[in-house]
Structures are given as C-alpha cells and as structure tokens.
Prior knowledge:
By secondary structure, this protein is an alpha+beta fold. The protein has a domain at 1-33. Helices cover 14% and strands 17% of the residues. The chain contains 2 helices and 3 strands, in the order βββαα. The protein has helices spanning 50-54, 62-69; strands at residues 4-9, 13-17, 22-26. The chain has a 3-stranded antiparallel beta sheet, with no helix packed on it. Strand 2 (13-17) and strand 3 (22-26) form a beta hairpin. The protein is flat. Residues 52-95 are annotated as: Disordered.
Amino acid sequence: MEAHVVGRLGQVMYEVKLASDMWTRQRNQLRKRIAPDRPTQGVNLPFDILPDTFNLPGAPSQEDQQQADLRPRRWPLRQRRSKVKMQVDPRNVRY
C-alpha cells in the first residue's frame, strides 16, 4: 500500500494519506520507503568545476593530511599493577 505521511499528531501518532482515505497510525505501524518520493531532476556538474564556482580551497596535500590524522594519546602512560586474585578460605567468616 502506498501512502504519504501528512502530519504528526502527538509524539507517536501520524496522519497518513492513502489514495482516497486519511488514516491515523502509530509510529510502529509505519514502514520507511526506500524509493525516493519525487524523481530527481538536476544538472550533473563535474566535481572539478564546483570548487571554482564557490571559491573553495583545493584539497590539502598528503603531508598536511597525515599531520592532521595524528591525534594526542587518549590513555594514561602510568604503569598499572597486576590484579591479585582473592584466595577464598571457607573457614573465614569475613574478608
């Protein structure tokens, strides 16, 4: 069934328009469509024209990109002690 969401009623309710009817449905009763709603009509421009059109800077060099990828260390340098496992003695009342 093909339908379009017309409006939202509250937090989970939606108004849905079918061919000739208007239904009220909950969010969990609706399914997303994969097909686009409207056909796209646009001019396909080559990507090398776009930076000149908007006066955008060129792509950064490889060296600049490598320097930007280096991030500071996010974990401490301290040495951690190994964990000591607890030796259970059934004769002890408490630990």
